[in-house]
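Hi, here's the filled form for the chain we discussed.

Project: internal
Contact: R.S.
Residues: 252
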Amino acid sequence: MSIALIPSTIQPEPELYGQTVVVIGGSAGIGLETARQARAKGARIILTARTPDHLNRAASEVDALSTAVFDAEDSNALDRFFQNLPQIDHVMLTAGRPIYGRMLDMDIEQARRSLDGHLLLMLQVARNAAHKVRPGGALLFMGGTGARRPALGVGLTSAVTAAMPALTANLALELAPIRVNLIAAGFVDTPLSAQLLGDELENQRKQLREKLPIGRVVGPADVAALAVHIMINTALTGATYDVDGGQQFVAA
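And the returned structure, exactly as it came back:
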């Protein structure tokens, strides 16, 4: 006697279904692409950014649950934002940019702002997230691989790059069972990269296509895919994940 197998019509729920993802700095680039991919996995999205017009366009694209306009480096505004949040599941911080220049020529206040805008910002976000993120949820920070080698003009950024993995690992212990991870990216082809490089952007793309082991330039979707995976995989915490197409191994 043969038994006919009837295909199941039941579809599994998306992996982030019913979860809420906050992206701080989510109006463009890596932040917006992470929001897109998390939304496709069923998440509800909360976006923040400094520029209302950019934020409104991004929010419309991902059908955001809510938005907030503020500068993440404004500690009072950041605290108010978290105070008004409901319970959430994941937070990704993409705000901030590298500071370049010789350390001995750098104004001390400029140097202090750079440190505040990276290490102390991570700490402030972590303190706020401790009371808002559900157990097992993820806190994600963005770092880099490009400044791991000492070079003129990247000294302060290099110091921040070295400190972020240690801060991430220690926060993972203190915030447990909330998970804390760091994504270290190399060059990513984003609007911010275009702004920083200007006329040199296409030359940078060409050089990377020729030199990188992957034979192409890393884009926001590559980083976002890793970010969403870290949200989904509840075994991941305290670690730094490189996504630079092998740039750190071949760049001069």
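Let me know if anything looks off before we file it.
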